Amino acid sequence: MNLVVAIYGLTKRFPREELYGLTSQLRRAAVSIPSNIGEGHQQGTKSYAHFVSLALGSLAEAETQLEVATRLRYVDAEHIAPVTALAGELGRVLHGLRRSLQARS
């Protein structure tokens, strides 16, 4: 959830013409991460591991879009660095969760 909030804050800095482009895509990818975790948590362990994998895919998509925003100079390093650090930490946590769930099934 913290990453979603951070990305929403960051994308407010994007150019207005990106509202239906990169801004929308990045926000959807970010929201998809906790959505998949929440949905998977309601399933059994094997399904949960699958949904965590989907969340990791959405995280990778968001990280790619953050790189695109950086290269297009929509945000400066000062504003994007904390968001990419948060994304990296979330990736480590999700990889660990997926390994733990796979070991259980």
Structure description:
It is elongated and about 45 Å long. The model has no long low-confidence stretch (mean pLDDT 95). It has a single domain, classed as de novo design (two linked rop proteins) (Up-down Bundle), CATH 1.20.1440.60. Helix content is 81%, strand content 0%. It is mainly alpha-helical. 22% of the residues are buried. α1 packs antiparallel against α2 (22-41).
Total individual domains: 1
Radius of gyration: 15 Å
Unreliable spans:
none
Strand content: under 5%
Give, in order, the helices and strands: HHHH
> How many helical elements?
4
The appropriate CATH architecture is Up-down Bundle
CATH superfamily: 23S rRNA-intervening sequence
Mean pLDDT: 95
Helicity level: over 70%
Main pleated sheet:
none
CATH top level class name: Mainly Alpha
Distance between the termini: 27 Å
Task: Examine the coordinates and then state which fold CATH places here, giving the name of the CATH topology.
Answer: de novo design (two linked rop proteins)
Sheet/helix structural class: mainly alpha
> What characteristic shape results from the CA principal axes?
elongated
Q: What's the total count of β strands?
A: 0
Q: Summarize this, please?
A:
The protein is an all-alpha fold. 81% of the residues lie in helices and 0% in strands.
Topology summary:
Layout: H1 2-11, H2 22-41, H3 45-71, H4 77-104
Helix pairs in contact: 1-2, 1-4, 2-3, 3-4
